[in-house]
Every structure is written in structure tokens, then in C-alpha cells.
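Supplementary Methods S3. Input chains for the assembly prediction are listed below.
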Amino acid sequence: MKRSIKMVLAASALVAFGAAEAQAQQAKPEEVLALRKGVYQVIRASFGPLAGFADGKVQLDAAKAQLLGTRLAAVAPMAAEVFPTDSDFVAGSKAKPEIWSKPADFKAKMDAFQTAAAKLADAAKAGNLEAVKAAVPDVGKACKACHEDFREK
Amino acid sequence: MKRSIKMVLAASALVAFGAAEAQAQQAKPEEVLALRKGVYQVIRASFGPLAGFADGKVQLDAAKAQLLGTRLAAVAPMAAEVFPTDSDFVAGSKAKPEIWSKPADFKAKMDAFQTAAAKLADAAKAGNLEAVKAAVPDVGKACKACHEDFREK
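Predicted C-alpha cells for the full assembly:
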């Protein structure tokens, strides 16, 4: 066990928990990018079926909606954490420099995403599938608003 | 909004929810691998600080432990979902063929991981930091057990 924990720790020195500043101090740029891409993969995998459900193209029961909504809300805060201040020129990233030059606007958009995701998760946990559908558009709008300003096409 | 949802849907055709079989039908091998790596990045980013906490190397308060434990348990089921049956020879993957040739053993180890992660999350949600620490080793053992049998060095 001891060895196992140490392996995990060594592997995760890059994934500093909390402030982006802490992350920037501990992670190499390529490690930041790998986690960043990973976070957005999981967000997409969680929200995609929920968006499809709202659009009538995916069938979800209450249990699956809850699983996906809970997952989305649990990971959503990471979306903002994976852009530490010294990771603005990582090769292979679509992040625009405006993330770092307009931090207040970036934070506001990330906060809107977290809020929308949390609202969707609350609806899903309550087992209210109509409320889940109703909560999807705000999440989609939050994704789009941030991507338009802060992500290269 | 409509357009936004469609974009998400198009982007997430690859991230079929639920059975690995469904996923295999919808995703290209490189898309499967991207999601797989993403899931494990998020798992590592969630469990790493918890393992460090149990080892006395990371400080966590109850709120942060709950955030990380909840996230770990929310994403843990994805660990098993990202190995659909036709993704056994994706370039760049460390997945061993035994994942597909010994599915019952693989599932048992994945189930053990999910169970251990859920137990840790329960302790974190209860705000019991000593129980969180006590729950860490079983998660670490589950990671290690699966990696030893099913992941290339």
C-alpha cells in the first residue's frame, strides 16, 4: 500500500489541488495540458448525453440522469482550475491568451458554468427529468459563451 | 442554444453513455483513447491529494476532502466504461489484451475500485477526516491491483 500511495503521489504532483497558482508551481506545461484535456473530455462525456436527452435524441432514465448530472457538477469546478497562470503558451492548446489577460471575465463565465451545472445536478438528484431538460440550455450557453471568447476554433 | 446543443451532441457522439458495447459502436479508436486518458487524468487529480492527505503530505479540510471524494466516486464508474470491446489495439494505449481476454477478472477489479471510491466518498461527505484517511488504502490497492494485471509498465 505504502508504495502504491507513493506512486500515486508522484504521478499526481502535477495535479495540485486548489488554486491555479499552486498548480502552476507544481506542474509541467504538458502535464497541465493533459489534465486540462482530460477534464474537458469528462465534462463532454457527462453533458453530451444530457444535452441529447433535452434534445429528444438520447433516452435517459432518472438514475442515469442523476449519475451524469452528479458527475458533471463534480467535475465542473476543475474546468477553471486547469488554466494556471504560467500555462498560457502550452503547445497543442486551443486556449486563447484572453484567459490570462481578462481573468475577471474568464472567471465570471466559469462561475456561470458551475452554477448551471449545479442546477442541473440538483434537478437530476431530485429525479425531476423535466427540470433536468429545462436546466440543460443554461449549461450549453455557458459552454458556448466561454468557448467563443476563450477558445480557438 | 439549439446550435450549441447540436455542437455538443456532435462532439460527444463518441462518448456513448452506458454499456461499453454502445460506446464501441459510436466512437473511433482515437476518440476512445482520448476519453480513457481523460478519465484517468481526472481520477488521478482527485485521488492524488486524498492519498497525500492520508500520507500526511497534503493538507485538506473537510470541504476539500468532500469535493475530491465526491468527484472521485462520480468519475470512478467511467474507469471501466472506457474499454469498449473493439478498442483493444489503440495506438498509444497501455491497456493489456488481458482486459478483453479476462473480462470477469477485469470487472471484479473495477468493481473493487468503485466500491472503495464510494466508501471514501461516503466518509468525506460525512465530514469524517479520519475515516477518509482510513478509506484511502483500499482505493490505492484497487488502483494497483488493476494496473499490475491490466496495464503495461
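The mean pLDDT of chain B is 86. The first helix of chain B runs from residue 2 to 11.
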